[in-house]
Description:
Elements: H1 6-14, E1 25-31, E2 37-44, E3 47-54, E4 57-64, E5 67-69, E6 78-93, E7 101-115, H2 117-124, E8 140-148, E9 151-158, E10 166-172, E11 175-178, E12 183-186, E13 200-203, E14 209-210, E15 214-219, E16 222-229, E17 237-241, E18 253-259, E19 268-271, E20 274-275, E21 278-284, H3 287-292, H4 295-298, E22 314-319, H5 321-325, H6 340-353, E23 357-360, H7 389-399, E24 402-408, H8 413-429, E25 434-438, E26 445-446, E27 458-459, H9 463-478, E28 482-485, H10 494-497, E29 501-504, H11 511-515, H12 525-528, H13 563-572, E30 577-579, H14 584-588, H15 591-599, E31 604-613, E32 617-624, E33 630-636, E34 641-646, E35 656-663, E36 676-683, E37 688-693, E38 698-705
Parallel strand pairs: 22-23, 22-30, 23-24, 24-25, 25-28, 28-29
Antiparallel strand pairs: 1-2, 2-3, 3-4, 5-10, 6-7, 7-8, 8-9, 9-20, 9-21, 10-19, 11-18, 12-13, 12-15, 14-17, 15-16, 16-21, 17-18, 26-27, 31-32, 32-33, 33-38, 34-37, 35-36, 35-38
Helix pairs in contact: 6-7, 8-9
Bound molecules: 1-deoxynojirimycin.
Amino acid sequence: MNLLHPVSIFLALLSGFIPSGAVCANPVAVTSPSGNLQVEIATENGELSYSVRRGCEAVLHRSSLWLVLREADLTGGLAIVDTARATRDTTWTQVWGEFGDVRSHYRELRVDLESNPEALSQGALSPGAPSDDAIRPVARFTIRFRVFDDGLGFRYEIPAHDGRDSVLVTDEVTEFGLPAGGRAWWIESYRHNRYEYVTNETPAGEITVAHTPLTIRCDDDLYLSIHEAALTNYAGMSLRRLARTAGDFGKAVTLKADLAPWSNGDLVRAELPMRSPWRTVQISETPGGLIESPLILNLNEPSRIADVSWIEPGKYVGIWWEMHLGKSTWGSGTKHGATTANTKRYLDFAARHGFAGVLVEGWNVGWDGDWFRNGNAFRFTEPHRDFDRETLTRYAARKGVRLIGHHETGAAIENYEEQMADAFALCERDGIRAVKTGYVSDDPNVQQPGGKSVPPGEWHYGQFMVEHFRRVVEAAAARHVVLDVHEPVKATGIRRTWPNMMTREGARGQEYNAWSGDGGNPPGHTTILPFTRLLAGPMDFTPGIFDLHFDEYRPRNRVNTTLAKQLALYVVIYSPLQMAADLPENYEARPDAFQFIKDVPADWRATKVLHGAIGDYVTIARLDRNSDDWYLASVTDEEGRTLNTPLAFLDAGRKYRATVYRDAADADWETNAYAYVIEEREVDANTVLTIVLAPGGGQAIRFTPVD
Ligand code: NOJ
């Protein structure tokens, strides 16, 4: 649609798309393949902006786009000098994931811009910029848009300039002008515990500064998730709400990119040519559509690992929950958890029940003393005296189970980087194919390079750590090791390029139920995560706690769900490495419910969201990657619910045996959490299942074709 056409201007004014009285100069537009989304890029008075519409409806109002570099302020005097278009429609296969084949279909618009040299000579060059005449100020850059039917991504690209090989980004003025009336699910950035908070649900106008993915319901059929893809050599982006100005016609709220700074205040130290991460907006009529959208993956590069045969999703158990309960300790002594005998017990248990791996935390030197503050004591190749690594390596091999390594760094980055090549080599030698890493520190920051103590250190999500995390992924890949990162930087789809970057924490996981002083995760927590944190990628939530009260160890804490809901989390919260987190004795006490955990896969061919209301309930069905079995699970918040669920996803004409693990009629997370029923029935694609969930409850079902 030509925006200068009178009808277009009328529609645009009607929808609040452009400010009254202002007409964009030389706009260029690109639509999604089906035409459902339209993106327009314009310069006005030398300033660049973009806007997004769905039909006549404004999805994002006209919003600024530019970078401020120390070398040049690209805010003004901009002109579009060239554009290029392309359409791509390809299908690629995930090594592992929540979908098998992924279609990537988009229209691309490349916009080349130049800063008017006059503007530069009139002082647009930022203070502090090098004045060497031989180096010309940065005056050219590109913005590349890719528009899919499920949203869009755009990024900045700065080519190498005559004589210049680096620039310093001092601000990124990427804005997102939201329509009125949005409701947001968000977590505040720059706080002590990184991403580990209960999600806020507020009007979008109450956001201060939020981590991404940030999910917004604009109205009943317009849901957005703003995030980033392919975060590489750049600082992590948060979104800061700007104060309203007179020019904010039609916009309820404007959010602006807020890059986590280096400890000296730099934002991004970029080498040229530079490509920023993609700024992404997923757009859906339903909240479930956000979960089904592969947009973040599609904006990442294909795998850099040619032979992926050693990368295997699977389930694991571990010497882990017992430390969080206080039954045993990470450090040495009479309660040490990672002893040879205890590890053998877990290896036996894993072998008996078909688990692929056994995680062992606290196996190495460094845990004694205040490891929160002294990560430099950690040794990643030196076991505690009572952990006989050689014997256990042989024992695990005999049992057909793999040990899973653990590298808690205490956020002492240099100490870890000095040792990680040797540590991953040792893993390879011992047949360890997966390592869980950790970056706990008693501060939102990690140590600065040079080991200087905090504060102020480097943010967990600033460029320093983004680059560190990537070095670890590459070092692990070189030794055929996959990673499960705790206290990570957020996921941005890097798993496509580095499929050994399998899962991560990056939210409040199960462990908060063991020890947090705030009552643990509320029942609604896992009805929000699939629509927020999990849009970024898999999460090692560590589900499957059967002893929900653990009074013997921590009587003041508990898990705020029914037992059936713990089973449902295996389907609702996707992770290619999925833990059965509870103690072996608690599983062996309930073999009937444990069967679901033994059966459920960690790798899927298809994912469909059948119901969803963010913060209330969600129902997801997934097809096993390696069989024709479907799994379905529903979870609810503190309210009980009845959800009528058509099974239309099943193959038409086939009969299935449904094994249902459900809350009993009188179950309730607070008063009767262990009341569950396991029953079988025959169903087909025409069946409409009535799923009854207890308050704080859940339901998990396995469908096996009867033929
Ligand atoms: C925090 C991690 O989230 C947890 O899983 C781990 O057990 C501890 N750090 C110790 O590394």
